[in-house]
Here is the input.
Amino acid sequence: MTSNLDLIIVGAGAAGIGAAQAAATSKLNYRVLEASHRVGGRGLTEELAPGIPWDLGCHWLHSGSINPLARVADQLGMHYGKGSESRNFFLKGAWVTPQQQKDYADYTTRQWHAMRAAEDEQRDVAVVDLTELDQPWSSYYCYWQSLMSSEDVDQFSFRDLTAYQDTDENWPVTDGYGTLLTKHAAGLPIELNTTVKKIDWSGERIKVTTNRGELTSKYIVITVSTGVLGAGDIEFLPKLPLATREAIDALPLGCYNNFAMLYEQDWPFDADTPSRIDYSNGDDVNFAFKLNCSGWPYIYCAVAGRQARWLERQPPAESESMMMGALKDIFGNDFARKITRFKTSAWGGDPLVKGAYSASKPGLSQQRKVLSEPVADKLFIAGEAASTKAFCTAHGAWETGRDAVKML
Here is the structure.
């Protein structure tokens, strides 16, 4: 392995790829070390059936019009959707009425105003502390907010919602977000199956010990998740500064898993069936279904937080049964015969990630900025957790990787 390097980048997810692209532009002598057999990190595309891509991780180009990876997708000839979709709410066994739709919209508006008021008062509390919990929509609203952060509403700061730069443009990558990242990484000097075990930054040059040997560099950009950093999977000599360690602890990964049900090629729904369905039994079963996902014949939904953790520990049949139960409630018992395959992700059990994406603990949302600050002007941490406006996203991670290299 080469040791005469200007820069070592640890991790080849979105942040590592962004850092590598910036390093290449700057003509730096660098290498990317990736513990996995693949690139992309939490961006991973598989096939539900031959020719039908499915993202186990990130899937949408969030805030599409300002998302730099949308421009990358254009350059690579990748496809993504921009069209509007029909949407309706199936609540407690029936489609909601127009008046109920208005009531739900008013409810969500009140929750948003409560968060803005708390922000003006310079408070930093959990989302649940600002949420009306006695409304028909409360359980679904809490479920939906958990999808925003991969954690339950009592576990993360509302400031993660108000600080996020959102244009309400979420464009699904038709060909797969994981495929986009893999193509974007083509040609970069990435060493796969290379696990970083120790980083000694005590001297003039940084020494990095891996399962394949030792190498040195002047700078290092670390893009592994806060789950990996918090678990101590990489030894630092000396230890990272207390402020950095506190920031890592303040930004743990939540859990978020995707489900997909492949159905018969013929459209099994009525012509007036909405393409997006908000579902709630009014209690503990809540789903945001997307039908005909990205033009492919499958139904997508996701779960997050405690529910995701619990389901991940069960056989996949438990997740399938819960999802199918909701779909039968909507479409009737015969619907099950149209399903040909079920798949679920399991990010909490991935040892190279240990979760989904970061959720700032109540009172500690300011730690995202701390995490992104250079250490001794030679050690930089990048990734979605270090983004102050696009955390929990691939493009936010990508931008922090590029920003870290620009600080060298």
